[in-house]
Design goal:
375 residues; CBS-domain; four-stranded mixed beta sheet; three-stranded mixed beta sheet; 56% helix; elongated
Length: 375
């Protein structure tokens, strides 16, 4: 989620990031209008048009997030692109009575919420613009331009509603396509097929744009980027669900004693690559502490003992648990380390840093094996 995107705060408790294509969009608009109007373009208005598109996409994604919560899905993070958003959900286990039929119908309902809200916003803003100033030309071509921002607000929502009905995943039409495919095959395979179809559509749009309108090229590039994000998310989810902690846990790690002074603990931390440490008394684990916590305690209170500042409340995992289980425990407590135990004996640790690194490597490994099955 962090590749090619920047943080933009939180929306309804969801971590929001803006994709690089949104940063390039004002440059594209400036170049497009500069060419169309023979060297005449307006930088501030181009930025305002970008802001309008961003607000419309955010409203579109808000509709998806709020609708998803009604179905028990917990949105964790979303990346906003100029046409759509890519949202990661923490989905609870489905009851046995929840059949695949109900799931694919739910997917279709969730997908159609976005275009319906964008269409409603287009009609609402059109009514407001006409009521405030009937002389504003809403039907003048080009519909989306910085020279007529009120009209652009109407058409940005209308374009989002129409373009999101394309059968290009993760556009809403592509999500409907994936839901239909999932009636016959499993969701992972359906997603891969939907992504492949999306890539083909993106290529057609980019080539068509080179021969006609630059906006088609931009739309194709956005669809391609969004499909790649969803494809990578699918691989990561596969890693989370199918890899056990014993495959990635650190077995060669340093520990601290509750009787260690903070200066001694910091000295040990300097000589190893760990940022987080289990605290061991005899054969029992009694706490965890991070390098950052050691530094903060030294600065605030001077030298003391690890026992006084360590975190005595912590989660543990079994070596056969999945990465997904460990990741949920880490994020639920905002922790950075999970001890791995077997028969009440510490056999390894998993840190957030080590987990993210391992997930990246495992995801790339699985992608390479999928792309090169003969090897």
């Amino acid at each position: 989620m962090r590749s090619w995107s920047i943080p933009a705060g939180h929306l309804f408790g969801v971590d929001v990031r803006i994709h690089l294509t949104f940063i390039l969009l004002p440059l594209f608009i400036f170049f497009n209008e500069y060419s169309a109007h023979h060297g005449s373009a307006n930088g501030p208005r181009d930025l305002a048009l970008t802001g309008i598109i961003l607000a419309c996409v955010a409203a579109h994604e808000c509709a998806h997030i709020l609708a998803a919560r009604r179905y028990g899905l917990v949105p964790k993070a979303t990346i906003l692109l100029p046409l759509t958003g890519v949202t990661l959900y923490d989905e609870p286990a489905q009851p046995e009575k929840q059949t695949s039929s109900l799931l694919w119908k739910r997917e279709i309902r969730l997908a159609l919420v976005g275009p319906l809200v964008s269409l409603a916003l287009a009609l609402l803003t059109a009514g407001i613009v006409i009521a405030v100033d009937p002389t504003i030309p809403l039907g003048k071509w080009p519909f989306l331009q910085s020279r007529n921002l009120p009209s652009s607000l109407v058409w940005a929502n209308l374009y989002l509603a129409i373009l999101n009905l394309m059968p290009a995943y993760p556009m809403d039409g592509g999500r409907v396509l994936r839901a239909v495919l999932s009636r016959e095959i499993d969701m992972s395979t359906a997603t891969r097929r939907a992504v492949s179809i999306s890539n083909a559509i993106a290529m057609v749009l980019m080539v068509a744009g080179l021969l006609s309108d630059n906006w088609l090229t931009m739309i194709g590039a956005i669809v391609f980027c969004a499909a790649q994000l969803e494809g990578r998310a699918l691989v990561f989810q596969s890693v989370l669900d199918n890899v056990n902690l014993e495959e990635v846990m650190l077995t060669d790690f340093a520990t601290l004693s509750p009787a260690d002074t903070l200066e001694d603990a910091l000295d040990k931390a300097v000589h190893c690559l760990q940022d987080d440490f289990p605290v061991i008394r005899g054969s029992d684990m009694v706490g965890v502490i991070s390098k950052q916590r050691i530094l903060e305690a030294l600065r605030a209170e001077g030298n003391g003992y690890v026992q006084a500042v360590m975190n005595k409340i912590f989660e543990v995992s079994l070596r056969k648990e999945t990465l997904g289980s460990a990741f949920r425990k880490l994020t639920a407590r905002n922790a950075s380390i999970i001890p791995v135990v077997e028969d009440q004996r510490l056999v390894g640790i998993v840190t957030l840093q080590n987990l993210m690194h391992s997930m990246s490597l495992l995801a790339e490994s699985r992608k390479l094996r999928r792309d090169n099955p003969e090897e």
